[in-house]
Amino acid sequence: MSTPYQERFEALASALREALHPGEQFTLGYSAEQSRFVRFNHAKVRQAGEVAQASALLRLVRDGRQAEQQFTLGDDAQLDRQRLQDALAQLRLTLPLLPVDPYLKLDESAWHSHSVQEPALPDFTEVLALVEQQAGNLDLVGIYAAGPICRGFASSFGAFGWHQANSFNFDWSLFHSNGQAVKANYAGQVWSGEAFSARLQLAREQLEYLGRPTITLKPGRYRAYLAPAAMDEIASMLGWGGFSAQALATGNSPLQRLYTGDAQLDPRVGFSEQVSGSLSPSFSSEGSPREDVALIVEGRGSARLVSPRSAAEFALQGNGADSYEAPCALSLAPGELASADILARLGTGLYISNLWYLNYSDLPAARMTGLTRFATFWVEDGQIQGPVSTMRFDDSLYNLLGPQLEDLTRERELILSTSTYGQRQTGSSHLPGALVRGLTLTL
Q: Does residue 240 share a domain with residue 93?
């Protein structure tokens, strides 16, 4: 069953096929959203609005040359077609000025993909009622976004992909009167008032601990639990070339040693690109069907993310990666640690809810540095003692998910991208928390 967004996109693709000259090929990407945004401050609505927008990315190819142009779309079909014609005319003028692209590789198969995920979006009055009821006396600051996101693709070779998915994302912080904060998030496709309330209650409990005297630790190695949000920061760093075929082929990947077999992680560590069942479309913006990809299996480097360009340059088989070759739906296999047992198993050490401002301090060694922030607590004998002052960590992924890894949690958290720069995103991660024997704090 087609949707109004899909019908507009199909009409645009049909008009493009009719306007094509002999010898020309095209790919046409489509992005759209209809989102409700609400900004909260002191747990009250301070700003509310809706955004409906759509855009297209046209790529024209002829005689081994390619050029692309993005343009905004609206509700006027005639105006949209004129914008398409203008973009096509501009690209025809540009192409002869460009050199032949030696690594141009188009998927010439006439693949078809169609997915419409339309679970009921949260009743906004229910969201407001829960916030008022359970956080009305708190300084809650955050942004709520919900609505359908659409992605489309068509090519002159007959390929056609359509993806539409409803989702919500509530990203908030609870601030203590002393200026410290607990950061939390609840996101997904199927809203549960109970799950939201549980997440909010956990944040409220952590907020109370922030009122205790701050504990300052000396630099050193500490036993630690990294919550899924903290693990997401680490996993996001791996998207900076960690699984990229291009980065691995040129020696610029932080996981170079893992993929050459010179290093390995704990055998329980398994990362995969799990597109199926995620919010991401099952086709790339480059025009290839996406596959689920086992990236790290039993702690060893396995497959890599290969874009069409890398496939042509390095004689590899593409697997639907976009040009930047970063995961769009990264999943880390769960472990055996029950969430209810986290503090008891941690015993004495750090409970780290979030990490911040990460970067590589030694990229070939997969060594990362960053700050603890928001709700980081010192725990003794399974009991939270108080918040820890912000500190810098510096440690290698090979240590944290290697010999220092004690266990991963059974329960995993779905973390959706909170980025709204330009448009809402479809990226996600599905991650457990990690209990490690030692995390190095430097200052």
A: no
Tell me, yes or no, whether 64 and 173 share the same domain: yes
Does 277 lie in the same domain as 203? no
Q: Give SS3 for 84.
A: helix
Among the candidates 150, 185, 209, a domain finishes at 209
Question: Does residue 330 fall inside a structural domain?
Answer: yes
DSSP string, 168-194: EEEEEEEE-TTS-EEEEEEEESS--HH
Average pLDDT of adjacent 10-residue blocks, the chain of 443 residues: 83 96 97 96 94 96 97 94 97 97 94 93 91 94 96 97 96 95 94 94 96 96 97 96 97 97 98 94 93 96 97 95 95 97 98 96 97 94 96 97 98 93 92 98 93
Question: Could you say which of 157, 178, 209 is where a domain stops?
Answer: 209
* Assigned domain for 339 exists: yes
d(CA 258, CA 186): 33
Query: Per the domain annotation, does 215 fall within a domain?
Result: no
Cα gap 353→231, rounded to integer Å: 9
What whole-number distance in Å separates Cα of residue 431 and Cα of residue 357?
Answer: 19
231 and 189 within one domain: no
Kindly report the CA angle at 196 between 44 and 148, in degrees rounded to 5? Answer: 80
The structure tokens listed for 375 are 């709700």
> Do residues 116 and 159 both lie within one domain?
yes
d(CA 359, CA 347): 29
Q: Which burial class, exposed, middle or buried, applies to 21 when counting CB atoms under 10 A from its CB (0-12, 13-18, 19+)?
A: exposed
Cα separation, 346 vs 383, in Å, equals: 9
Instruction: Give domain status of residue 214, yes or no.
Output: no
**Cα–Cα distance between 179 and 416 in angstroms, integer?**
27
In this prediction the pTM is 0.94
- CB neighbour list of residue 238: distance below 8 Å, 6 or more residues apart: 254, 255, 271, 327, 330, 397
With CA atoms as reference, report the closest residue to 27 among 131, 132, 161.
Answer: 161
